[in-house]
């Protein structure tokens, strides 16, 4: 059957425009580079979109984080119905000091047992009542040395003598004493009410020189 027997239709026109047989026209030269071009363009766009996605959720990621100083739980704090006895501390608080850790009165520096009582004064302040005491009368008043002797003996001194003074007398009633008898000399000074008291190492015991009445 020849082509002249049928009128030309639309299918015949399409067939004329298409290639015939197994030989088709070759692809353009840039067709092989098309996947690489698409990858180069798509990679930056994908990275940019990923950065935008991550940057839009910083607050939400930090919201679920635990606080740096979590609040103590019920097990770490003392419950209202749990009393803390003497010497015990609240669990979890090692810096608190219980009643049993406080210093007792006997351990403090100001306790009565630590302070020196009047009877426990230093050895330098102890008075030796056996110290020899000489009462020398340089006043010319009869019986003045004897009366003074009795006052000193009334304080417990057992070695007291009354004599007349010879030599150069002082200008006022004076007590002489060596360093070893300082405590006794000061006590006798208070008993007699004499203002002048002079340390001298050439005397033995306490020497009281009277140039006038007491």
TrEMBL record:
Low complexity bias (residue ranges): 102-122
Signal peptide: none
Pfam families: LytR_C
Domain of life: Bacteria
Listed InterPro entries: LytR/CpsA/Psr_C
Residues in LytR/CpsA/Psr regulator C-terminal domain copies: 131-210
Biased composition (Polar residues): 60-80, 92-101
Transmembrane segments: 29-54
Region (Disordered), start-end ranges: 60-127
Gene3D superfamilies in alphabetical order: 3.30.70.2390
Keyword list, A-Z: Membrane, Transmembrane, Transmembrane helix
Protein name (database record): LytR/CpsA/Psr regulator C-terminal domain-containing protein
Protein species of origin: Mobiluncus porci
């Amino acid at each position: 059957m020849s082509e002249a027997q049928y009128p030309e239709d639309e299918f015949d026109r399409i067939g004329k425009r298409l290639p015939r047989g197994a030989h088709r026209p070759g692809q353009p030269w840039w067709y092989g580079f098309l996947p690489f071009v698409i990858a180069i363009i798509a990679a930056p766009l994908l990275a940019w979109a990923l950065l935008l996605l991550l940057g839009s959720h910083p607050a939400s990621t930090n919201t679920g984080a635990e606080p740096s100083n979590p609040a103590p739980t019920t097990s770490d704090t003392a419950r209202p119905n749990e009393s803390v006895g003497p010497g015990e501390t609240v669990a979890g608080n090692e810096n608190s000091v219980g009643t049993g850790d406080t210093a007792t009165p006997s351990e403090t520096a100001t306790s009565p047992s630590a302070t020196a009582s009047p009877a426990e004064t230093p050895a330098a302040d102890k008075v030796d009542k056996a110290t020899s005491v000489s009462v020398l009368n340089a006043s010319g008043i009869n019986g003045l040395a004897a009366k003074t002797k009795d006052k000193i003996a009334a304080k417990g001194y057992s070695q007291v003598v009354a004599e007349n003074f010879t030599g150069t007398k002082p200008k006022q009633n004076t007590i002489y004493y060596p360093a070893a008898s300082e405590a006794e000399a000061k006590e006798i000074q208070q008993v007699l009410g004499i203002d002048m008291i002079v340390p001298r190492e050439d005397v033995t015991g306490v020497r009281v020189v009277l140039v006038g009445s007491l």
